[in-house]
Amino acid sequence: MRESIRFASIILFFFLFQFSSSYGQDLPVKKPDLPRRSVGMTNEITLDQVYEALQKEGNEKGLFLDFGNPALQGKIYSGPYPYEEHESDLHDRRYRLHSSLKEGRGLIPIARFFEDKYDANEWVDSSVTQAAVAVRIDLWEKNRDDVHHHGFRDILVYFKREDGRFRLVTTISEGPFVNLLRSDDGDPSGTGVTISWETMQPSGGKVVVKGVDEYAHRADDLRDHQIEITGLRHDTRYKYYVQSGETRSSVYSFKTAPRRGQGNVTIAYTGDSREGVGGGEHTFMGVNRYILRRLADDAYRRGAEIFLFGGDLVNGYTTDVGDFRTQLKAWKQAMEGFAHSRALYPAQGNHESLLNAYGGEDKFVMMDKFPYHQSAEAIFAEEFVLPKNGPSPEDIRRPSYKEEVYAFQYGPVKIIAFNNNYWFTSNHLVNQYGGSPEGYIMPDQLRWIIRQIQQGDQDPSVKAILMFAQEPVFPNGGHVGDAMWYGGNNNIRAYTDHGGRLIPEEDGIIEVRNKLWRAVSRSKKVAAVLTSDEHGYHRTLIDNDTPVGIMDDDTDGDGRLEKVSPNRSFVYPTWHITSGGGGAPYYAQEQAPWSDDVALYSSQFNYTLIRFIDGRMQLDVYNHNGQRIDHLDDLLHGK
After folding, report:
1. What pTM value is reported for the model?
2. Which of 313, 340, 358, 521 could form a disulfide with 32 if both were Cys (CB 3.0 to 4.6 A apart)?
């Protein structure tokens, strides 16, 4: 009897293994019968390739770069890093010298920063032998009659000077960054934070929190370092540094989150920092670094404790994983001054697209990159440290929601990040290949969002709720034809492949949008839904008199709304705010059914600053020059 049971168990295990293996290889989309294409390359030379070009051993003048490509030419700009760190709380990359890159090779002239004229960091007086320089490489490539400009690449280089010669040491290539400042982290002994950084070389790592303790990895061969620190006091400032190998970072500080339900807090928000127009730092590795840095620095000076970011961080729409990572790393470089001491919470936008692309003469298809461990969602989650409490996809063949759909509490405010750019396929071809159009929210995520709102309503420690995502729920400029509206076309929806048949979702985009907003409007605590995608700023109070469109407006049954009526099921008026002024090219206002209800529209670069002060949610909006362009005393009351 036991032998027969054992045999049956083996057969069952084999069957389940075979089924799960074949199911795991199955796709929820149809692979196009078209030639595979490479598109959207912003960075043909990635940051990893630049670091690989760094030579370990230098000479008495500095360190060498060698790309192994004689067609590469350029300029190498360098300066001590952090520049005069004892005088600035936001560490700058400032360049003072330049040298040439010829036939793929060049010198970083570190020795000159030990000369009186260039020794701004007083390396000689303080007998420094180990430090760092910031390096910018402006690259172009000559091939016969063609000259191709690759643009800037910025890196940090840590060095040691021994016996008059320079050598490369363990280099902190990114960070350290403060992550997961939250009041509901589940730490019974207090609160915590996660410190992350990357190193060029595999190494061990530790975080030293001054006056508290050291927190070290067990592993000694990591490049991606994340260390969780627990047992800290709420609402308390700490100083810290990280160490990998023989290299220590500068000393930074962070302030822990307040207790749940307590404190006055300041939260910044914007989106759409993908590259702008004008060259230089406006088109920095896929990011408008010039504008983004100014907005982040202004938010820092005005006391923003965390920064929410509503997607379209970068150009994206690329088929190359290395290019996509380089763009995201460029965004983190632009935000590094803020992120050394305060937490970033980004959401995924439509431009955070990592693709499989296919095309022939008559058709061009873009799809979320599969296999999905290389999807836009997966790489986004790897590049950021975010809460992992999002929903699980009902169809396990689809990408994960982890670290892109999430919720957390900061003091008295609950924050819900959702993703209405999940599992993307070209909008007009979704019904042929499967996937989801931009703006659509799958039912599993929508149920999760509704539960999060309800839980916030029932939690007495939550005094207000903020929600944010990329696509506007009620667009006004640049995306009236898509986002969560599509001109009133409810036929827009996601499709899933099941055994060769494409099955549409039951609800179309208008039905999904109205279910979302009905849940929002039933909560007195939702102060605003923050979105981006449209490159400007607008604020609209949505209530049950706002013409938004309902399914009864589809009078001929074709799925398209012939008129636009108010939705009487909306209960409490709630602000819809779009702040997409992070650096992308501007959009002017377009006509939408709710245009007459728009309180303000501006095409300026902008970010919003929301302050919870003694039960009020105060709104201020600033442009990149620090000029205030909008103000509201309270998003919660007096609507």
Report:
1. 0.95
2. 358
